Amino acid sequence: MDLYGCDKTIGFATAVNTATQAIDKIRDTANAFDRVFIVEVMGRHSGHIAFQVGLSCGAESIFSFENYSNEKHDIILEDLIEKIQKQQLNRHASYLILIAENLWPGGANALQEQLKSQGNIESAICILSHTQRGGDPVPEDRVLATQLGLQAVDALIKGEDKVMLGLSAAQLTKTDLNKAVSINKPVSDELVNAHKGPLTHYLK
Predict the structure, then answer these.
(1) Average pLDDT rounded to a whole number, residues 41-58
(2) Which helix (H) or strand (E) holds 15?
(3) pLDDT tens digits, residue range 100-142?
(4) Predicted model pTM
């Protein structure tokens, strides 16, 4: 998903689906026992999985590279504690925090300790890790792999090389390989802002 020159990479939809199914089960437990959960998803240095999964699961808080910085760590943590405590008082006590890997200093364990020490908030941790890389591919990925495989063979027959094939707006794209691996593709502002929107918080 974070590869420049295409809408989605092969396997992205499956990874999002796997994580969403896992977190839906975690949400059931959180609701049943009024628990706060910290869930860490893969993504390396990209927030595409974090925001796609977080929005689909209705996570109360999503932290990724697009909305977190070490310089604002204390402010972000203070705001998070305030939101959790407010929700526990005014609505229901369950709360889902979704973070991207390699983001929070010290990882999910550090965040858990900080919530306890600074907000007296108990929380549980679930690190999905490599479970997102396995499992049966969803139909979307199977079709995408077939399409790109056929186009790759066609490109080789025509003598083309050093290009990345992808689909963008349902159209085949060919991107110079150096550009594909060197140009950053951030999460869209629309997706980041969707989590901040009043409707999103109203539905939680």
Answers:
(1) 90
(2) helix 12-33
(3) 999 999 999 999 999 999 999 999 999 998 888 878 999 999 9
(4) 0.87
Q: Assess contact for 97 and 39: CB atoms under 8 A.
A: yes
Amino acid at 32: A
How many C-beta neighbours within 10 Å does residue 139 have? 10
Amino acid symbol at 146: T
| Of 8, 12, 11, 2, residue with least CA distance to 166 | 8
Q: Are 138 and 8 in contact (CB under 8 A)?
A: no
Cβ burial of 189 (10 Å; 0-12, 13-18, 19+) is: exposed
* Residue 188, pLDDT score: 85
DSSP assignment of 42-88 equals --TT--HHHHHHHHHHT-SEEE-TTT--GGGHHHHHHHHHHHHHHHH
pLDDT given for residue 197 in this prediction: 60
DSSP for 141-200 reads HHHHHHHHHHHHHHHHHTT--SEEEEEETTEEEEEEHHHHHHSB-PPPHHHHHHHHSHHH
Contact 89, 77 (CB under 8 A): no
Query: Residue 108: which of 176, 36, 6 has the closest Cα?
Result: 36
Local structure of residue 6 (DSSP, 8 states): S
pLDDT digit string, tens, across residues 15-26: 999 999 999 999
